[in-house]
Amino acid sequence: MDEIKKILAPADLSSLAKAGVAYALKIGASSQDAEVIIYNVITVEETPFPHAVGEWVDSHLTLPKVKKTLAERQKQLATFVAENFAEFLARTRIRQDVEIGVPYKKILEKAARERADMIVMCSHGRTGLLHMLIGSVTEQVVRRALCPVLTVPARELKTPEQS
Predict the structure, then answer these.
(1) Is residue 36 part of a domain?
(2) Which of 152, 139, 61 has the alpha carbon at shortest distance from 104?
(3) Closest Cα to residue 17, out of 154, 140, 135?
(4) What is the CATH number of the domain that holds 76?
(5) What integer pLDDT is reported at residue 119 of this predicted model?
């Protein structure tokens, strides 16, 4: 297996996403010099222009409303990381990034741009009609990624000490 130097850890800032990010950080902390990119994607529907298409929003990132949305989410991501993963901050190289678009597409693009060695993400475990209607971001990433994808179950992970 190749050495892991860069891990992409997508996070939607939910409590379930903590498991995936924590796992990525554990891998990053155990690999010498590995960087973990904690990455959040704002859907177009969450922007001030919910009926726009991703390409339009991408080409208008300098608009004050779009810049404000990105800045607010970057603060939320920083808070999410600081509140949930403080123990990793000193011993792991962490970078945080936020972009706007279709989550699975942006994750795949980011992994390719960054030349990520691995993507680690949580599977929210949607089933039935909800899964059929909206699919799974994780499933789309697993199907299309050019690097290995480690999926972490949505349930709370127990540490070895808790077992």
Answers:
(1) no
(2) 139
(3) 154
(4) 3.40.50.620
(5) 97
- Consecutive 10-residue runs of the chain (163 residues): their mean pLDDT? 88 90 92 90 89 81 90 98 94 95 95 97 64 67 94 63 43
Is 63 inside a domain boundary?
Answer: yes
DSSP string, 56-91: HHHHTTTSHHHHHHHHHHHHHHHHHHHHH-HHHHTT
- 137-144 and 103-114 helices, crossing angle to 10°: 40
HSE toward the beta carbon, residue 1, CA cutoff 13 A: 8
Query: Domain for residue 32, yes or no?
Result: no
Domain range holding 125? 6-27+42-153
Per-residue pLDDT, 135: 53
Q: How far apart are alpha carbons 20 and 54 in whole angstroms? A: 26
Q: Is 135 left (phi over 0), alpha (psi -120 to 50) or beta?
A: left
Query: How far is 116 from 100, CA to CA, in rounded Å?
Result: 19
